[in-house]
Amino acid sequence: xxxxxxxxxxxxxxxxxxxxxxxxxxxxxxxxxxxxxxxxxxxxxxxxxxxxxxxxxxxxxxxxxxxxxxxxxxxxxxxxxxxxxxxxxxxxxxxxxxxxxxxxxxxxxxxxxxxxxxxxxxxxxxxxxxxxxxxxxxxxxxxxxxxxxxxxxxxxxxx
Length: 159
What we know:
There is one protein chain. By secondary structure, this protein is α+β, with helices and mostly antiparallel strands. Helices cover 38% and strands 26% of the residues. β1 (27-32) and β2 form a beta hairpin.
């Protein structure tokens, strides 16, 4: 058993340990149940839980959530539209988000899958200085897609 200051008090029977904790106006909490004998500590359990919740809240606050944004193209997407969508993708990456670039094939466009591959290669060339590939281009039914993530871990937060 360990007291509130962290000093070892020794090995006690459970009823003696509970009585001692009750006399001090604290709670007896099992810290390491897998140890032989189990380790217990005399603490104020309400305060202990409050501090734990506070630590969890700080960890959650510092945790960075990554959002997946999608940019959709067609095999015959024009140059201006391609540039416009690529600029948006670069903005998303600079904000720290992942970007999924998808080429959607309709009808007979499926026969020209190499157009979609070329489009995605051009997209990669444009974003290579701000992004790195997480998932290589692959066909999923009528869509060909790839996922890129920001090259640097620091993302600008929205003001």
